[in-house]
Amino acid sequence: MASKQTSLTADYTSPDSQHTFNYPLPTNTHVEATKDVTEFLVKLRQSTIQMQKDVNAFLTQKMDEDKAKDSAQNGKVDEDKEENMYGEEADDED
Question: In whole angstroms, what is the distance from residue 14 CA to residue 40 CA?
Fold first, then answer.
């Protein structure tokens, strides 16, 4: 029996684009050894962190594209529209 590829996946869809984020995970579906469980959880955690970074970078790029388009059309960025679409900008507390 062929093993099925396991992955962590997120899909972004908007009216004018779509993007899939996909991160392969270990394929052992019959995990019995603690070592195998630990390996899977470590890889899942790493993939989740990377996905979060990639999604944030992608959405930031989309926001910048929207700002540029609005600015080109209106001569300025509509701050109220931006806040409604993306939320209020939060200060980094790290």
Answer: 32
Tens of pLDDT along 19-66? 999 999 887 656 677 888 888 889 999 999 999 999 999 999 988 888
* Measured CA distances, 69 to 16, 75, 76 (Å): 13, 9, 10
Q: What is the pTM of this model?
A: 0.70
Residue appearing with tokens 């200060």: 91
As a whole number of Å, the CA-based R_g of the chain is 19
Query: What separation in angstroms does the CA of 63 have from each of 48, 59, 68, 72?
Result: 22, 6, 9, 14
